[in-house]
TrEMBL record:
Keywords: ATP-binding, DNA damage, DNA repair, DNA-binding, Hydrolase, Metal-binding, Nucleotide-binding, Stress response, Zinc, Zinc-finger. It comes from Fusobacterium periodonticum ATCC 33693. The middle region has homology to RecA with ATPase motifs including the RadA KNRFG motif, while the C-terminus is homologous to Lon protease. CDD domains: RadA_SMS_N (cd01121). This is DNA repair protein RadA. InterPro entries: AAA+_ATPase, DNA_repair_RadA, KaiC-like_dom, Lon_proteolytic, P-loop_NTPase, RecA_ATP-bd, Ribosomal_Su5_D2-typ_SF, Ribsml_uS5_D2-typ_fold_subgr.
Length: 460
């Protein structure tokens, strides 16, 4: 049959016979890309015998007969990385690792490959670097080459044939955007090629119980390059965050079928590669004085792990007619709400003041339980009241000025105790939960902002 031209949405993979300005499936604008395809021949008159033979080849397992053990997970010497995976890399799992260029994706994967080789052969497929370049990087990371094999290949059909014949335990693909299927006319990196190559990888992983790591590029707005369907096809999506100029990198789990989502692992970029930071709370709280004005600590929850972060605030007179709200590491809209609550309920005029809020270290806070700590830091600056750096605050604020209940409070309090904190502000609505257990911390219960202001005036 003659070749035909079709259009695919680069966001969701929707197929259309003609170009459209807006995708009818996902609503994305200007997302359709033209792709040349060879239609498959449709064979008519398929006999019932051939249908029956194909059905006999299909393997079906009853749920109770499926065997699974914890030994089916591969572990590395990096505890934080294994925790992110849900306890280790599962056999047949496909993990997509994304991040900005140069952030350390290839470095970390080469380091974990050095651990996975203890379970069997590891294959590193590179479409961006030569074997000599990879070996040079491996020697810098002090990685021995035994059990790690390098393939400089981009045709997924050749890769498929080799992997199926050799059956390594773990395969690393760097990167999916460089692979192509030679049976198709489109070039590598197009949505169709990315989708088809990923389908082949998932097929190998599930059929032969081979685990895969796939490196993916991201676009300027931080999205994975290629069709949105790519993220749905894999089992887990990990994203590297952090500026190249910063000392550390954050690996965040955005999707995980076999573990918790929104987990994060913190690594430091050093001369000999990535080094995990196990006690990240101490790292983020370094270089703090005993008492500070405009500084407050909050235990936030990222997945199943608690991190202690510092919130800093600064208030100055506005030099122009429109006051500024400069925010780093916190939701700017949330700051607008908190300042509105402070003006309405506490009669504190912030409308003509420049307000600066920062979370040192570069980590972004999304946990609403940080509201109380942020507002306390703002009030501390406005009133000039210093706060002990051994006191933390936990609580979400409502528009009526009430301090609302927070969840997983026990984990947060235990982390504060472990790092030597002496007191914590918590919502009154959490009292029954807290009184069931004994804590070394001085628990200060608050119902609303009036009680908070009263305690701050007493410097309590």
């Amino acid at each position: 049959m003659a070749k035909g031209s079709v259009f695919y949405c680069s966001e969701c993979g929707y197929k259309s016979a003609k170009w459209a300005g807006k995708c009818p499936q996902c609503g994305a604008w200007s997302s359709f890309e033209e792709v040349e395809e060879m239609p498959k021949d449709v064979k008519k008159g398929t006999s019932s015998i051939s249908v029956a033979s194909r059905a006999s080849d299909i393997k079906v397992y009853e749920f109770k007969d499926v065997e699974y053990s914890k030994e089916d997970r591969y572990k590395t010497k990096y505890e934080e990385f294994d925790r992110l995976l849900g306890g280790g890399l599962l056999k047949g799992e496909v993990v997509l690792v994304t991040g900005n260029p140069g952030i350390g994706k290839s470095t970390l994967l080469l380091q974990v490959a050095n651990s996975y080789k203890e379970y069997g052969d590891v294959l590193y497929i590179s479409g961006e670097e030569s074997p000599a370049q990879i070996k040079n990087r491996g020697e810098r990371l002090k990685i021995s080459g035994d059990g790690i094999y390098i393939m400089a290949e981009m045709d997924i059909l050749n890769i498929y044939e080799y992997v199926v014949s050799k059956k390594p335990k773990v395969v690393i693909v760097d990167s999916i955007q460089t692979l192509y299927n030679s049976s198709m006319d489109s070039i590598s990196g197009t949505p169709t090629q990315i989708r088809e190559c990923t389908l082949k990888i998932v097929e190998i992983a599930k059929k032969y119980n081979i685990s895969f790591f796939i490196v993916g590029h991201i676009t300027k707005d931080g999205k994975v390059a290629g069709p949105k369907l790519l993220e749905h096809m894999v089992d887990a999506v990990f994203n590297f965050e952090g500026d190249e100029g910063l000392y550390y990198r954050i690996l965040r789990s955005e999707k995980n079928r076999f573990g918790s989502t929104n987990e994060i692992a913190v690594f430091s970029m050093e001369e000999n590669g990535m080094k995990e930071i196990k006690n990240s709370s101490e790292y983020f709280l370094s270089e703090r004085e005993e008492k500070n004005i405009g500084s407050m600590v909050v235990p936030i929850l990222e997945g199943t792990k608690v991190f202690l972060l510092e919130v800093q605030s600064l208030i100055t007179d506005s030099g122009v007619g429109i006051p500024r709200r400069v925010v780093q590491g916190y939701d700017r809209n949330r700051i607008q709400i908190l300042t509105a609550i402070a003006e309405k309920k506490l009669y504190i005029p912030l409308g003509m003041k420049d307000l600066f809020v920062n979370v040192p270290g570069g980590l972004a806070i999304e946990d609403p339980a940080a509201d109380l700590a942020v507002l306390i830091s703002i009030l501390s600056v406005y009133k000039g009241v210093s706060i002990s750096q051994k006191i933390a605050a936990i609580g979400e604020l409502g528009l009526r000025g009430e301090i609302r209940k927070v969840f997983f409070l026990e984990r947060r309090l235990k982390e504060l105790e472990k790092l030597g904190f002496t007191g914590v502000y918590v919502p009154e609505s959490n009292r029954k939960e807290i009184e069931k257990k004994k804590y070394k911390l001085k628990i200060i219960y608050l119902k609303n902002l009036d009680e908070l202001l009263e305690r701050m005036n007493k410097n309590d």
